[in-house]
Each structure stands twice: as structure tokens, then as C-alpha cells.
Write a structure and sequence with these properties.
The chain has a single domain, classed as Alpha-Beta Barrel (TIM Barrel). It is about 40% helix and about 15% strand. It has 13 helices and 8 strands. Helix 1 crosses helix 2 (about 65-70).
Length: about 325
């Protein structure tokens, strides 16, 4: 095991959308992105202590990793942490597909090590997990996490790593007010009991929980997320209105409340950032303390919306 304990900021920064082409309506998110704009995001994030950047080969087939490295250019490697992933479905034939995919990521990220390396999904835990051990031994990866794994799969990965003196130090699953499968399955409790960091992705449900979108102003036409969320926006209105009210009482906004909720539940939210102004919300969110009754109210409203936002790639927890 590495001598250093995994230490991360209160919020991690997601770059899933950075893998899009940059043209509105194209890719999963349909966001307009530019190199100067993303550099501005990096500068504002780094100056506010948000220094963990989460990406993956699967985000634009490496495009997100490449764009992230360009945006971070000029910063000393000690000033930021990199989190990327091995995706089994993208593995090629060869003696060591995990090592090969990591080398490609290291090249795109312009670094010789990754702070946190994930098995992106549990396609074959027994097959892929052992390949992480020599990478840990070499120092090319400092810490290991598993993403989209259930309790049984987390335990199996942990046993395999444990035989070599390592362990699963982080879990990254879809977790939001609208999708609390990891909580109901006992994964959050497991992480608390075993000192494992739980990372929550899609905390804002790709924008649907920001309060910005509604039937009259839907998510970007043609993007994949529009196809998933636009039809359910009317059912989220009561929840997002309440989030907005709670935010206004604190000088904050609806998405800040969603992020603060995840922090209150013991998670490290991974929040997608495509504009520098989004960092202001993260600064607010990390200082918001929601009362127990406010958390319970938000969860009741979320349950009442009656929506299922499980992604097509996700298994039942």
C-alpha cells in the first residue's frame, strides 16, 4: 500500500463533458467548450482548492484526458490530483490490457503517474483487478478505486488487492437525490465502516437538478442527456423549487443545495464543470450545513417525483 493516505478536497471536479466535441447538440452533454474557457475553469478551481480532476478514457475516447492535460499545463504536478479509469469494454487484446490502457492515459494526461485509478465497471472483477497490483508496485498509480460496483464486487476486488498488501480505497457510483441505490444497498455504510472514500457522480443529474431547465427551457436539443431528462423535468419542479428556496436563504442556488446534500451524506461529490462561474457554487456548497429535517424533506420530495435515473450502463446495486 502507498504510504500516503488518500486525501481529497470536499468536491472533485468532473470532466465527462470535456470529452464532447465542443459543438452544441453533439456528444452526451452538448456543451460549447473552448480551450480558453476550460483554462479559466482550471485557474479558478485551483485557486479555490478544488484540485482533484476526474476523467476517463471513455469520456470522448480519450479526448477528455487530452483536453484536461492542456488546461492544466503550467501547473506543477504536485498542485493537482488526477483520477482516471480503466474501462474493460475498451480493452484491447494483449498481454496486459490494463497496463496498456494506463500508458495511453498517462501519455494523454502528460504525467508519469495517476493519483487515483479506477476499474470503471465490474465486467470481470477477478480478471481485471490483479493487473492493478504491479501498477501499484511501480508507483504508476497511487491509489485504487472501483466504480459502479456492488457490495459483493467491492469485497472481491478488496480481497484480491489485499493479498498483495493493497486495498480498495475509494468507490465511485451514481448517487443523487433522485438515485440513492448505493445508500439503500449499504454501500455508503460499508465505506464509512472501512474508511473508504465514497465518490458520488451525477449529483446534479447532468443538469436536471440545477433548476435551470424546465419544459419551456429544456436541456440542449440533440444531446443524449436531453433524451433522458427532458421528459421528466415537470416531475422535478417541486423538488428544484424547494432546493432554490433553501439556497436563497443561504445566499446560494439550487445546485449548491444538491452538492451540499451529497457532502452531508458523507460523499465526495464529483461535479462537472464547464464554466468558471460554476466554481462559485462549489465554494458556497462546501460551507452549507443542511439540517437533518431539511435533508429528510429533500429526500421525500425526490421520492415523490417517482423517477428512475439509473443509467443504461449501471447494474442494480
Amino acid at each position: 500500500m502507498t504510504s500516503e493516505t488518500l486525501a481529497v478536497p470536499a468536491v472533485a471536479l468532473g470532466t465527462w463533458a470535456w470529452g464532447d466535441s465542443g459543438e452544441a447538440g453533439e456528444g452526451y452533454f452538448g456543451s460549447r467548450l473552448s480551450a480558453p474557457g476550460l483554462r479559466e475553469v482550471v485557474e479558478k478551481a485551483q485557486s479555490n482548492g478544488f484540485t482533484l480532476w476526474d476523467t476517463a478514457v471513455a469520456y470522448g475516447m480519450g479526448h477528455s484526458e487530452t483536453v484536461l492535460a492542456q488546461a492544466l499545463k503550467g501547473y506543477d504536478r504536485s498542485e493537482y490530483q488526477l483520477s482516471t479509469k480503466f474501462t474493460p469494454q475498451l480493452a484491447r487484446d494483449g498481454d496486459n490490457p490494463v497496463a496498456a490502457m494506463l500508458e495511453q492515459s498517462l501519455d494523454r494526461l502528460a504525467t508519469d503517474y495517476v493519483d487515483l485509478y479506477w476499474i470503471h465497471n465490474p465486467a470481470d472483477v477477478a480478471r481485471w483487478t490483479p493487473s492493478l497490483i504491479p501498477l501499484l508496485d511501480s508507483g504508476k498509480i497511487k491509489h485504487v478505486g472501483v466504480s459502479n460496483h456492488n457490495l459483493e464486487q467491492i469485497a472481491l476486488a478488496d480481497r484480491i488487492l489485499g493479498e498483495a498488501g493493497y486495498r480498495v480505497e475509494a468507490v465511485q457510483n451514481h448517487y443523487s437525490l433522485l438515485y440513492r441505490s448505493s445508500e439503500h444497498a449499504g454501500i455508503l455504510d460499508h465505506c464509512r465502516e472501512h474508511n473508504v472514500r465514497f465518490f458520488a457522480y451525477m449529483v446534479l443529474e447532468q443538469g436536471a437538478l440545477t433548476g435551470r431547465y424546465n419544459p419551456a427551457d429544456p436541456l440542449p436539443e440533440g444531446s443524449s442527456r436531453a433524451g433522458v431528462y427532458n421528459s421528466i423535468l415537470p416531475r422535478l419542479r417541486e423538488l428544484t423549487d424547494r432546493m432554490r428556496t433553501l439556497g436563497e436563504a443561504r445566499g446560494a442556488a439550487a445546485p449548491d443545495i444538491a452538492t451540499a446534500w451529497a457532502i452531508a451524506k458523507g460523499a465526495t461529490p464529483i461535479i462537472g464543470v464547464t464554466k468558471a462561474s460554476y466554481i462559485d457554487g462549489l465554494v458556497r456548497a462546501r460551507t452549507i450545513n443542511l439540517a437533518d429535517e431539511e435533508i429528510a424533506e429533500l429526500e421525500t420530495l425526490a421520492d415523490a417525483a417517482g423517477v428512475d435515473t439509473r443509467g443504461w450502463w449501471e447494474q442494480e446495486m
